[in-house]
Design goal:
This protein is of the alpha+beta class. Helix content is about 30%, strand content about 35%. Helix 2 (about 20-35) packs antiparallel against helix 5 (about 125-135).
């Protein structure tokens, strides 16, 4: 994956180009969900656009992604996952950090997101908005959150930082109609913000015990 698609979209505060990356589209979706983009419709559009560009940073080496993850949470990530890309965004009262990992296959993916939006919608609505953005942009190749067929979802309460947190474990048929895909998602408060975990793995890579252990290692 190239860093260019992120840099080009925000370079010098210019408008995003057609074909923008999944990470940026998810970011825009979250901004809309929190009402932050409403500020851009008011006065000072150019100034605010410059502030947004200055507050945007992308990393793409495994070491940098690991460091970014440590800024968000302490978590024991299985060795099969390698840091693929990450981004940080700081705009007025809104902040967002996102780390994306890829597993043995490109269909095995882990996304860790932290957002801070004073007065934002509930954690469940924020997570659903991000998931909708991922599903809509699933063909970009950066985080292919597939829309599953014949999906079944089970809610499991896991312990995160000593508190019970509900995670959704969904199993269904992938877009190829042949591969069983597992998707896990959940969110919990962190300081003044929210941390969201999204995991997707094909059956051949999936180990539920290992995933649960990873989630419950969060500090």
């Amino acid at each position: 994956m190239s860093n260019d698609s992120f840099n080009d979209e925000f370079d010098d505060g210019r408008a995003a180009k057609p074909g923008m990356s999944t990470g940026v589209k998810v970011l825009i979706g979250v901004l809309v969900g929190g009402g932050i983009l409403g500020l851009l419709c008011c006065g000072g559009l150019i100034y605010l656009g410059k502030q947004a560009a200055d507050g945007f940073k992308v990393v793409e080496t495994p070491a940098e992604v690991d460091e970014l993850t440590k800024e968000i949470i302490q978590i024991d990530i299985p060795e099969q996952f390698t840091g693929k890309m990450g981004m940080k965004f700081n705009f007025i009262v809104f902040t967002m950090e996102m780390a994306v990992y890829e597993g043995v296959s490109s269909d095995s993916q882990l996304m860790i997101i932290q957002t801070t939006q004073p007065g934002a919608v509930s954690s469940e609505e924020q997570m659903e908005e991000i998931k909708r953005q991922m599903e809509q942009q699933g063909q970009s190749g950066e985080f292919d959150q597939q829309e599953l067929k014949d999906a079944e979802t089970e809610t499991k309460s896991l312990t995160v930082r000593g508190q019970p947190v509900d995670f959704q474990f969904t199993t269904g048929m992938g877009e190829d109609g042949e591969t069983t895909i597992h998707q896990i998602s959940g969110a919990f408060p962190s300081g003044e913000g929210l941390v969201i975990l999204m995991i997707q793995m094909p059956e051949e890579d999936y180990n539920e015990e290992e995933i649960v252990k990873m989630i419950e290692s969060i500090q």
